[in-house]
Amino acid sequence: MEKSFENVSNNDLFDLADLFKVFSDSTRIRILFSLFENEKNVNTISNELGLSQSATSHQLRYLKDSNLVKSRRNGQSIFYALSDSHVEFIIELGLEHLHEDN
Question: Is the pTM higher than 0.85?
Answer without folding.
Answer: yes
